[in-house]
Every structure is written in C-alpha cells, then in structure tokens.
Specification:
Two copies of one chain form a homodimer. In chain A, 36% of the residues lie in helices and 28% in strands. Chain A is α/β, with parallel strands linked by helices and 308 residues long. In chain A, the strands form three sheets. Chain A has a five-stranded parallel beta sheet, with helices on both faces. A five-stranded mixed beta sheet of chain A has the order 11-12-13-14-15, sandwiched between helices. A four-stranded mixed beta sheet of chain A has the order 4-2-7-8. Chains A and B meet through strand 3, helix 2, strand 7 and strand 8 of A and strand 3, helix 2, strand 7 and strand 8 of B.
Amino acid sequence: MILVHSFNSSIDITYQIDHLNIGQVHRPNTVIKNAGGKGINVAKVLNQLKENVLLMGYIAGNNGKTIKTKLEDITLSNEFIETDGESRICIAINDGLHQTEILESGPLIKKVYQKEYIHKLKRKQHCNVQVISGSTPILEDATPLEHTHTILNSIESNYNIVDVRASELQQLLQYDEVHCIKPNETEFDELIGFTCEHLEQRIDVLKHNPLFQNKDVFLTLGANGALIKRNNHLYRAHIPNMQIVNPVGSGDSTVAGIAYGIENLFDDEMMIKFAMACGISNAMNEQTGYISLSQINELIDKIKVEKI
Amino acid sequence: MILVHSFNSSIDITYQIDHLNIGQVHRPNTVIKNAGGKGINVAKVLNQLKENVLLMGYIAGNNGKTIKTKLEDITLSNEFIETDGESRICIAINDGLHQTEILESGPLIKKVYQKEYIHKLKRKQHCNVQVISGSTPILEDATPLEHTHTILNSIESNYNIVDVRASELQQLLQYDEVHCIKPNETEFDELIGFTCEHLEQRIDVLKHNPLFQNKDVFLTLGANGALIKRNNHLYRAHIPNMQIVNPVGSGDSTVAGIAYGIENLFDDEMMIKFAMACGISNAMNEQTGYISLSQINELIDKIKVEKI
C-alpha cells in the first residue's frame, strides 16, 4: 500500500478569461474546480495507475467537504482529519498568455488535530511506500520539521519520499527516515546553497555532498530529463521532445511514478523510465494530476537511461 | 415585515495583496470572506437596524452552506431554497490602488427549484415591504423578467423596491407591482437610453418620462446627493462631505434605508434623509453592508432635503 500525505489540501480554481485587466471586473468564460495540492496530485496519479493508494490529510469546513466529495467522485481512498476553519482556496487566473495565482495559506492546525492525525496513522501500523508532498500548514506549537518527522515515525514504512519546499527539506535530510527527494534544478540549488553552472557540477554534488549520503535523489531537469541517484548509483535520463500542454503537476506525477516503481519492485532503469513517463504524460494533458496509460507505455520506449 | 430576495447569493472573497503582478504567484496578507450579493447587503443593513427582516434566495452546495452559516452568525433570518451545483464565489483582489474582480455566474436554477421558491413564498401570504436586489441567476426555461414578475405576484405586498440591472429594469417598469427603483446616474442613463447632461435634464426626465409614471425613483448622484421622486413629488437631497472608506454596498444600504422608512411610515423628507444616511454610513465603513447607528443619527442632521 502507498500512503500519501497532503497536509494542506485546497480547492484549486482555474478561471479562464480573455484578458486580465487590473482594476476591472471579469466574468470568466470557464471555471474549473478541483481538489488540489501536491499530495492530492500524487494520489490522483497513483489512483489512475490502479495502485492501492490511501490519501491522508487535514481538511476543514465546507471547502473540506467539497475536497472530499471531489475525491470520492474519482473513487480515491481517503482518510482526513477534520479541523477548525476552512480549507484553503488556490486561484489561478489564466488569460491564455499568463497564469496569475492567488494562494491562501489555509487554516491553523491545532495541537488536538495533530494528535488525532498521529493517532489515526499509528493504528495503520505499516505501509510499504509513503509520500509526503506539498507545503505544511500553519501548526499550533510545532514547526513543519517536527510535524513531518513525527509523521515519518508514526508508521512503519519501507520507503519514504518527501517532496516539500527546499528550506524544510534541508533539515529533513538529516533524518534516516527520508529515503528519497525529487527537487528540480532551482530547488536543488536552493538546497545546496549555491547555483550549479553545468551538469557535471550537479553530478559532482550528487556524488560527494554529504547532504545526499544514502539518499535517493531524483533531480528533474525539465526538457533535459533528469539526474538520478538511486542506491548510490548515478543515472542520467534522456527524454523525447513532446508537445507540452500544461506542465503544472508534472513533478507530482513523477513522484507518483517513483512510488509506483518502488512499490512494484521495478529495477532502477524501469523505475526511472516509468517516473519520467508519468511526469511527461501529465504535461501533455490539460488537467493537472492526470496521466494517460497509453501515453506512458509509448513514452517508456522513448526514454533512455544511462548509468554514469 | 420586510422581505428581501437575493436570487444569486455568493461568497464574497477579498484578497488584500501588496501588488497584483500579472503572471505571478501571490500570497495575500489578509483574506476576508463574507456572504455577499446585493440582496444580502440590504438584509444585513436592515438586520443591523433591528428591523423585522426575512431573507429569501437560492443557495447551492457547500458554498451555499457557508453562506447560510455566515448569515446565522449574524442572526439574520433566512429561508433559502437549496438547488443543485454550487453557489458562486465573487473575488476582489485589492492592492491598495485597484480592485480587480472575478465574478462567477453561479449555478443554473432548475424549474423544480423555481417552483419550490414560489410555493414557499405563496405560503407567507403577505409582507409590508419587499425588496428584490441583485442579478438574477441563470434560469431553466424562464427569463429574469418572467422570474421577477412571478415573484412579485406570489405574495401580497404593499411596496416593492426592485434594484436589478438596467436592462431588466426597463421592462420591469411596465408592471404596476414595481413601486420603487434606485438607479445611480449611469444606470439611470442606461434606463432612459441617453446620457443626461445636467441635473435639470434629469429632473425633466423624472417629471415627464412615461417610464417613471406612478413610480418612486431614488436617483443617487454620488457626492452630489440624490434626486427623489416620491408620490409624484420631486425632492433634492444634499449630503455633507464625509471621509469615504469603501463605497461598495452603499447603494444596497440606501435601498435598506428606503425599505426601513416605508415600513416605519416615515414622512418623505425623513425617509430620504434616513436612506441617504444609511448609504453614507456604509461608505464610511471598511466592510460592505455595514452601517453605524450613531453615524446615521449624526448624518440625518447634516442631510438637507428640498422640495423642487
């Protein structure tokens, strides 16, 4: 079973308008509302892959009810802790050229609900793969680091993938419970504290920086594929040129692909191809957190993985 | 009893941000969420005036539940018909200089719910003053005109104030059931089909245009006060210079003041002063649809009404 945590779930609203004019009134042509947040995207993709996935998280108020209903509409197994306040709304205003975003912070998670979460998690005893993805909400009397660490220690798990902001990740990497991270180039540079000039430098950092000792690192490079450190071996993934429609959620889809590969005991090369294919397939689709199985099968043949 | 209809209620969200940059991600400094829509503002003000007011309307989904909860938090009596879909969200992005708005259209109101509304309304038998305020939602098999006309004929009422968009109002004015309208200058010009050059021209139109025959017209002129036709007498209201904080909802507060004045048998001059004071008090407050009783009392002394 793959357990996915989405601590700060949201209703993602996309407004399609002709042109955003500051100071004006707009009536959108189309309005799309989805359950959102990075963890939810990961779980959605695993659900489409027919994997045995359980989504956990905090939800609040009527927005939380809407999130839960939307997940049940796609029969995604979920267990949420209901907290005070209202789950956040994340707004994207699309005018064809630009995406302007307004992101709410979400409700404060009181200690009583943090305890309830841990209690529920401990009752599950074990899972094979666990994913923590997306920002941590505002917590009463706890830092994001403490919260994530407690979660990781509340259930027996063979493999933990953590995909949170670089500032949190840096400290989290000190813990043995973090097995895999998936930064992009910007996040990687933020993590190591300086900007890499070229691929060779990134390879060198992956090999020697103590931050990544005994960690799997899936460093995505956009159109240039990825650099992967897995079981202390280094790989380079080359991807084909594809028609990108909407890259939002591609990182989350890649995380889903990694989790799927680990859960299904794929060898390193196959796991890397599969994860890359999930990310690209998401980018080839309009909707965020959606992949196509036939696209993935086609892509796997076109992705090349070399050991370096 | 004053009955207020709000057919297309919304959750009004105001995001306060430092600067709106197209194509960028914004995390708002403050987020304010209110039950909104012109009818709800009218009812809110009447509720603050401790008037016996009942709010009716359509609400839908979890957003509808949020609207209802917010009204119950301020103990505003309400009876809604719950329909399919989701009540709309109206977003205002404020960066100190500009207000950029995104207004959803709201759900389609199926015939079955329109009938349920009429049925509920007919059971009430009578009210003294009735207000229809704000845009009509998308209706199955009915025009806004037919819908409003049916509502006006479903309950015995002594005085009906209708404050909807000018395009609907023009046709509605043919009905005897419409007793009072409250256009601003722009809406007035739209209603009569040409732009008035000066006050005298507006007075002339109010006196002689058959559109306004036997109708009370409360024509607001912003800082220039108002022109009022009441019982076929004409009045001019002069208002003092005040510190305007947020004029949104001032028209709705004026409507509430008119309804209050009619319900409480104020003479024409007092009704006009009271309605103007409600509008100004709203504009002097940050929040939409909020007035201060002490401000109103002070303002009434400063507003001058002359018969013309």
